[in-house]
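Example record

The entry below shows one chain as it appears in the dataset: sequence first, then structure tokens.
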Amino acid sequence: MSRTNRIVRVIKGRRPKIVVIGGGTGLPVILKSLHQQNADITAIVTVADDGGSSGIIRDYINVVPPGDIRNVLVSLSDMSPSYLDIFQYRFESKDSFFAGHAIGNLIIAALTEMDNNIFDAVQTLSQMMAVDGHVYPVANEPLTLNAEFEDGTTAAGETEISGARKQIKRVWVTNTNNPNEQPVAVAPVIQAIMDADVIVLGPGSLFTSILPNLMVKNLQAALLKSSAEVIYICNIMTQKGETEHFSDADHVKIINDHLGAKRVDTILVNAEHVPDNYLDYQKYNEYLTPVSHDFTALQQQCTRIISNDFLSLHDHGVFHDGTKVAREILNRAFQPNH
């Protein structure tokens, strides 16, 4: 949908400012729908991924993992779909380096070397790709995700943490290249949070896509200080090695506990039944079962519960319906006293 054909909605003469914080495959779905509804979007994206093409590139040339950033750029771009297809293309070559890599990941890695930092690289690429909005890496250096499990053991790195299949007690991030330096979000990230009408968390993996952003201390402080409504988009399915046996209330409690305050104001919960035997568990092998509902416990964690059919089924996968989720987010943005 072209920019001129989008539904134009304004708050006091301006587009609603929506900040979305997260990572993973679910985030671009929501961003694309918000983009089509003319929201002023800032996407704050995790830089702690250590798997797949992103992880290999990170190991080879020591840059921030580009995969989540690439997908977010595409979701907000007004470029021709044919150009975006090139950017998203993955090599099928059997070459030991290029096989499986997306062209966009390599471009982001190259620009990071040219600009000497990921933040400026992403801003350069945003201009090249006609991105409508802002895409901000949460930090200007690669971060390592660390976890302590309920049994007292620890692990470092997304892959190691989820692969342990243990109940996670808490997570935190460290600077990959300089472990003694506290990770810091750059000034535009903090300003976007302070200027937001609504701040959206998710959708995405709770411990490895959402919380890594919230564990950057100055971002966390800004989130706690901001007057914006905080909306959490609850996952539809539990995730292997992260949220096994979790209810929707468990998800929110983990976020609030890590923030040290009951900061989640509103939760969007899918109420539609996931059909039995629909999900292809071989293709989507990180998913387990639908997230259970505990509305009594939820009421103790947040003030507003929006339970609706947010389900989209395609490709034998279970996803959020981006249009329905975006509509609820914008409805909250236009509330006078949210």
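Notes for this example: The two ends are 29 Å apart (CA to CA). The chain is about 40% helix and 20% strand.
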